[in-house]
Design goal:
Structural class: alpha/beta
Radius of gyration: 15 Å
Low-confidence stretches: none
Shape: globular
Number of helices: 5
Strand content: 15-25%
Bound molecules: ligand AR6
Order of helices and strands: EEEHHEEHEHEHE
Strand order of the largest sheet: 4-5-3-6-7-2-1-8
């Protein structure tokens, strides 16, 4: 399979990277969890993060009182390499429901706001909502990147945003969306 061509860019002062991998192994200041509104764990990336972080993560998320769809909350990372986990809740996809794109964008924007509030410099995201929540990745990737671009237009301590994508189709969809983002926004500068 061809390697996607477009996987790195600068957006203002922040590097944006796409790679294939397991987000639990990332050593960014924070990793983002694709959580549900209970914040009490689940399958997919949520299950993997809780397993890798250990039981203290659930002890902390129990104290948070859940999280609304489109919002994000921060915990420590415990046994993870990342010091923090930002638990973001994306929408369950429903075709024809216009609110899903807004809620997905909000989950990314709020994650970066929470990171900035804590002075974090690097954040790794999974592809929120495109697993159990059924959001087609070809539709989700442009929403994700547009939201990140918008959040990085304001001054922020975040100097690296890395998307850690779990399989080739997801990486390909994000790479195509990044190329399209660069065409729409001249401030998105490819890095070879
Ligand atoms: N690293 C990176 N990406 C991963 C990993 C990993 N270790 N594991 C899975 N993915 P999902 P959602 C990808 O289902 O759609 C949970 O039960 C996966 O291939 O994890 O937002 C929660 O508790 C897909 O591309 O999250 C919620 O109830 C992406 O992560 C619900 O699922 C998201 O898939 C949230 O569903």
């Amino acid at each position: 399979m061809d390697k996607p061509e477009f996987t790195r860019a600068m957006v203002s002062q922040t590097a944006l990277e796409l790679l294939m991998g397991d987000i639990t192994q990332q050593d960014t200041d924070a990793i983002v969890n694709a959580a549900n509104s209970s914040l009490l764990g689940g399958g997919g990336v949520d299950g993997a993060i809780h397993r890798a972080a250990g039981p203290q993560l659930l002890e902390e998320t129990r104290t948070l009182g859940g999280c609304q769809t489109g919002d994000a909350k921060l915990t420590r990372g415990y046994r993870l390499k990342a010091r923090y986990v930002i638990h973001a809740v994306g929408p369950i996809y429903r075709a024809g429901d216009e609110s899903v794109a807004w809620l997905l964008a909000s989950a990314y924007r709020r994650s970066l706001e929470v990171a900035a509030e804590h002075g974090l410099q690097s954040v790794a995201f999974p592809s929120i909502s495109t697993g159990a929540y059924g959001y087609p990745v070809e539709l989700a990737a442009p929403v994700a990147l547009e939201a990140v671009h918008e959040a990085l237009s304001a001054p922020t301590p975040v100097k690296l945003v890395r998307f850690v994508l779990f399989n080739p189709p997801t990486l390909r969809a994000f790479s195509q969306a990044l190329a399209a983002l660069a065409q729409r926004h001249p401030d998105v500068q490819p890095i070879s």
